[in-house]
């Protein structure tokens, strides 16, 4: 659908928020906390951004975008937008939902990872649910939405940690996650290193994987090693497609006339998730959980490869 950028404003150093509305002023499709939208930019470039306003609002979507020094084009294009610009977006999708029956929720945000977390905090507060939020940033100037988090209804449940604070409190994951209750759920979003540290601490403390939920904004760089050639076979026709070293499965299939829907092309969003009927994938995504990767019955062909000579795909 098409939306207008009705407002663009700074919420932290190098972070702009964008309010998106329908050109005719009609209500937007509903969404739940943790949801994101796809935004189509120039030359077909598509990026995913979490919705950070309250799901109770139907007149607007709000996203916030960090200008990344290592941008592949998305954040630069977003920051170049002006108020009044027309954008094409998808309806909201949610791969990072709140658990409906959690007794207590722990929300952890690192940097721009606060965008889905602040929406979660709003929903949990309005529902009268038990939760706490912990937000880590390089400095207060680089922390987004501090004004919202300082509102009386949230302030006593929000804990802030800044790297440049001389005598500031530091987040101690071991202490925070020491009590792994069966009905407590953990949500984490932020840089991959931050998420990895949280997941490692949760595992060390005995947390059930089903109670640990994460949302990556970017995958780790693809490994250069073990990127040799292999083949994929289409189960519907028996056709075999060669995947050369340095070529993604999605690209090889496209060259053969087989289109697989993609969006992020980094193994983050799950749009291209494909069933594997035979063979052993080399998982390089951050979308699938460890147990899902171990099952080897699905993979993301935008970034993952194969450990076996051939993968038979449900295509």
Automatic annotation (TrEMBL):
Keyword terms, alphabetized: 2Fe-2S, Flavoprotein, FMN, Iron, Iron-sulfur, Metal-binding, Oxidoreductase
UniProt GO molecular function: 2 iron, 2 sulfur cluster binding; metal ion binding; oxidoreductase activity
SUPFAM superfamilies referenced in this protein's UniProt entry, alphabetically: 2Fe-2S ferredoxin-like, Ferredoxin reductase-like, C-terminal NADP-linked domain, Riboflavin synthase domain-like
Cofactor(s) required, per the database record: FMN
Domain 2Fe-2S ferredoxin-type: 230-315
Presence of the UniProt keyword Protein biosynthesis in the record: no
FAD-binding FR-type domain boundaries: 1-99
Name of the protein: Oxidoreductase
Native species: Trinickia dabaoshanensis
